[in-house]
Amino acid sequence: MQSTVDGFNYGLVTPLVAYLMACLGGALGLRCITRAMVVARSWRPGWLALGSAAIGSGIWTMHFIAMLGFTIEGTPIHYDRMMTFASLVVAIVMVGTGVFIVGYRGASGTALFTGGTVTGLGIASMHYLGMAGMSLDGRLEYNTVTVAASVAIAMVAASAALWAAGQMKGFLWSVGASLVMGLAVTGMHYTGMAALDVHVHGTADPVTGESAAALLGPMMVGPLALLVLVGIVVIFDPLIVMAGSTAPPVEHKPGIPAHSPVPRSRLRARGPVEHRSRTPQRR
C-alpha cells in the first residue's frame, strides 16, 4: 500500500538548519577556490582540495540534517553505514573534479560548463546514493520528470557558484553566491524528495541498518570538524578577504629580471640615440 511521506516532521527547523549548513560549506569552499586563483601554482592544488572538501561536506551534512525530519507512515527508517559513507566520498570526489577543472581552466566557456556539470552530478549522486542507503519495510519509486528537474537544478546551481568563485570580486560577492548555492542545493534536495513515492509492504520483517539518530549523529562529527578546520584557515589567512583585489604573484626565474621591461613608447620619447665614432678626428 502507498504510504504518507513527511519531510517536515520537525517543522521548519530541519530545512532551515540544512540550508544554513549548505551555505556554510558553500561559503568556505568558494573562498578557498577564489584564493586558489591568486596564489602561486604550487599552492593551488591544496586550496582547491580544501574547497572541494568544504563544499562536499556541507552538501552531505545538509542532506542528512534534512533527512532527520523525514518520516514514512507505517515503517521505521534505518540507514546502511557503508552506503551512507560512500555518499560522502562521492560528493567530495565529484565536486573536487569539477572544482579542479574550473580552478585550472578558468570559470568560463567549456571549462565552466564541464566543471559545473560534473559538480552538479556529484551533488545529485550524493543525494540519490544516500536515499539508496535507506532500509525500510517498503519500496521506493521516483517520478522521472521530477528527478530530472532536481538534477538540472543541481547542475545550474553548481555552475553559477563556480562562475561566481572565478570572478574574484571580494568577500561579499562570495557570500551572496553561497546563499544562492545553499538555496539551490536545498531546493534540489526537496525537489528530489517530492519525486518519491513509498509503497509499504506491511509485513513484520525487521529492517536492517541503523536508525538515523544512532548513525547520522556520530557520522556528522567528521564533516563538521572539517568545516570548522576550513573556517579557521579562512579566518586566519591574511589575504583571503582581499583575494579578489590581489594580483597573481609573478614567479621569478633565473635569468629573468624581476622588474618589468621599459615600454617601447618611452624609448621612442627619448629621441634617436647618437652614435659616436671611435675613430679619432683630424685637426
Structure summary:
With 283 residues, this protein is mainly alpha-helical. Helix content is 62%, strand content 7%.
Structure description:
The protein is mainly alpha-helical and 283 residues long. It has one domain (12-243). It is built from nine helices and seven strands, in the order E-H-H-E-E-H-H-E-E-H-H-E-E-H-H-H. The strands form three sheets. Strands 4-3-7 form a three-stranded antiparallel sheet. A two-stranded antiparallel ribbon has the order 1-2. A two-stranded antiparallel ribbon has the order 5-6. Helix 1 (13-36) runs antiparallel to helix 2 and helix 3 (81-105) packs antiparallel against helix 4 (109-132). The longest helix is centred in the N-terminal third of the chain and has 25 residues, at 44-68. The chain is elongated, with a radius of gyration of 26 Å. The termini are far apart. Residues 241-271 and 273-277 have low confidence and may be disordered.
Question: In what range is the share of β-strand residues?
Answer: 5-15%
Overall pLDDT, averaged? 79
Largest sheet: 3 strands, antiparallel
Estimated radius of gyration:
26 Å
- Poorly predicted spans: 241-271, 273-277
Tally of alpha and pi helices? 9
Structural class: mainly alpha
The CA-CA distance between the termini, in Å, is 121 Å
Q: How many domains is the backbone divided into?
A: 1
- Overall geometry comes to elongated
Helix content: 55-70%
How many E strands?
Answer: 7
Order of helices and strands: EHHEEHHEEHHEEHHH
